Structures are given as structure tokens and as C-alpha cells.
Amino acid sequence: MSTLRMTSDLRRQLILGAAKRCFARNGFAGTTTKSVAAAAAISEGLLFKHFPSKAALYAEILAEECEADPDLVHLLGQEPSTATLVELVEGMVGHFMQIADGPDEQEAQRIRLMATSHLDDGEFARLLYGKIEDLIGSVFTASLESAIATGDASPIGNAPLNLFWFAHHTVLMAALARLPAVPCLSYGNAAGLERQLCQFILRGIGLNEAAIAFHLDRELAPNSGQSVTAESA
């Protein structure tokens, strides 16, 4: 038996590398598991041992890209706090709004694929939601708990992770509405849209007005990491 047999982890990474090239060249619809297997120089059966479907393969690639994003790495390294919670919401809103405004057609196609998945078998959406929850869910819930403990927020319901998904659904739908060449909605004053979305979401997850005003404008405040309640005590 050869001592050079490839480890499972290495084989998985080679498959992902081949898949990235295929998806970049042909898009999701134009890529098949057969073409990925050929690019990785393996059988399609071996590919399925690592990834059960094309959707699973694509979701894994997107999750890896998220994990490598320096802004997200910075955010995930922060202590749970009101400031971290607001930064997370601002980052999510900014990401989705930039997709609608920017020239990155690949990102726009990903949003379309996410929307289409909901109307189809839902596989890709379920997989991606799972990846997002694993990556960000605990940071959101821990930061929300911290905001509640310091008096910056009030608890809403008994399933805090649902609040994250409500926020995610809001920005996803807002991006979809603005994605066509002729937007479905203009939302009026686009210049203030991101701030308005942030305010809407932060109120919806329970932050009080003082905390929202302080942390959304924290670049103007000298001690932005402190809670509003603690600072005013």
C-alpha cells in the first residue's frame, strides 16, 4: 500500500480549490459535480464522499471566504459587548447594501441563488444558514446578552438567535429589492439608508435609543467600548 496516499483533509482542500476555479469560470448553474471532479482529477463518487451535493460544495466555499474576511476575523475576536453587537449589525447592513450598489456581479448572483433556493428545494439556503449560524450566531447572542446585562437592551422573546435571523432577513430582502437594474424600491433617500436600516434592526433586537445613538456615532465619542448605562452612572 502506498505511503503517499492523500489524507482526507488534503483531498478535501484540493476538491475545494478545483471547485473554486469551476464556479469562478462557469458560475453556480454552469458548474457540475462531474466537472469539479474532473478538475480535481478524482471520480465523481469520491467527490460525493466529501461533499454530498453541488450546493454543499458551494456553501463550504462561501463559508471559507467569510472566515478569511479580515473585517469578520476582527469582529469575531472582540469581546461580547454592545459595541460588538452594533458593529456586527453595521457590518451586515453594509455588506448587503454594497452588493446592491457595487459592480461585483458574483456577489449579486449569490444573493439571487439564495433567493431562488427558498423557492426550490431550499438545500443551498439551509446549508448556508447553518454555516452563518456556526460562524456568527454565538457572537451575536453573547453580545446581546452583554447589552442586556449592562442595561443597553431589553430582552425580546426567549429565542435570541431568532433576532439575528430577523435582522439577516431584513437586509437580504432590502438588497434583493435594489438588485435589478431598475430597483423594485428606491427607499427614497438612499444616502441615509444604511443608518436607517441599522436603527430599525437595533431597535428590533431590543437596544434602547441611548445605546443606539451612542454606538452608531461612536467615532465621535471618546470611550466607545463602554456601555451607555455604565458611562452615565
Order of helices and strands: HHHHHHHHHHHH
**Total of helices:** 12
What is the residue-mean pLDDT, rounded to a whole number?
A: 87
Output the radius of gyration.
21 Å
Structural category is: mainly alpha
**Number of E-type strands:** 0
For the biggest sheet, the summary is: none
Low-confidence spans: pLDDT under 50, at least 5 residues?
A: 219-233
Assess the beta-strand content as a share of residues: under 5%
Shape, principal axes of CA atoms: globular
Fraction of residues in H or I helices: 55-70%
N- to C-terminal separation?
71 Å
Number of domains: 2
Short structural description:
The chain is an all-alpha fold. Helices cover 69% and strands 0% of the residues. Mean pLDDT is 87; it is low at 219-233.
